[in-house]
Amino acid sequence: MIQMYNVYKIYEGGVRALEDITLSIEKGEFVFLTGPSGAGKTTLLKIIFREELPTSGNVLVNNFNIARLQRSSVPYLRRNIGVVFQDFKLLKKKTVFENVAFALKVIGAPRREIDQRVLQILRLLDLKDKMDMLPHLLSGGEQQRVAIARALVNHPTIVLADEPTGNLDQELSLEIMSLFEDINARGTTVVVATHNRMIIREMRKKVFCLDKGRLVRIVDNGKDI
């Protein structure tokens, strides 16, 4: 599903964001990326959905070779990847329904299909009664659920989440992680970047530990973090 071999990412000025990363994430796995700020978690996620390219090394995602992928093929890769950001990145002047529907409109889905799939995912995430509201009228937890709904509406095979609970309290954080666990139980591969050790211990999933751009440890059960 996701494979990296000897991956380096070096930015201008010689800043090494990733250094000799080799890892494998199997189809249907739920894994965490953890480490201090600047460890390379976000860069690694950006390479998976090809917002960034590796400086060297090989990256395979859903059988796509990221480094060799033609620009015209990038949308096909991303249709199968849902991304959830810490700051939600919701469209402020669009309703909950319109925010979630936007992910389908950009790929040219028919209106009837958009309506059906958006309503389905809003019901799943308990957001149907909020569908006509603007983001600023929602709580932080509700905004994060909208961001998750938008990431899931395309039925992706992979979901990437970058510090999805960074702005939430402990109770809401566990609620959001429970949603990701439900998503994973349906067969979706889930990769969550977080420095929240409480969540990692609670979830007890495989953990890739990064430090200064290097993969320093793999823990099979998060309780040991």
Calculate the mean pLDDT score and round it. Answer: 93
Beta-strand residue fraction: 25-35%
Q: How many discrete structural domains?
A: 1
**How far apart are the first and last residues' alpha carbons, in Å?**
25 Å
Radius of gyration: 17 Å
CATH architecture: 3-Layer(aba) Sandwich
CATH superfamily: P-loop containing nucleotide triphosphate hydrolases
Give, in spatial order, the strands making up the sheet with the most strands. Answer: 6-7-8-3-9-10
Low-confidence stretches: none
Number of helical elements:
7
The CATH topology comes to Rossmann fold
The profile of the biggest β sheet is:
6 strands, mixed
Derived from helix and strand composition plus strand pairing, the structural class reads alpha/beta
Q: Count of DSSP E strands?
A: 10
- Bulk shape: globular
Explain what you see.
- This protein is α/β, with parallel strands linked by helices and 225 residues long.
- It has one domain: Rossmann fold (3-Layer(aba) Sandwich).
- The protein is built from seven helices and ten strands.
- The chain has helices at 41-48, 74-78, 96-105, 111-124, 140-152, 170-185, 197-203, and strands at residues 2-10, 16-25, 30-34, 56-61, 64-65, 81-84, 158-162, 189-193, 206-211, 214-219.
- Strands 6-7-8-3-9-10 form a six-stranded mixed beta sheet, with helices on both faces. A four-stranded antiparallel beta sheet has the order 2-1-4-5, with helices on one face.
- Helix 3 packs across helix 4.
- The protein is globular.
- It starts with a strand and ends in a 6-residue tail after the last strand.
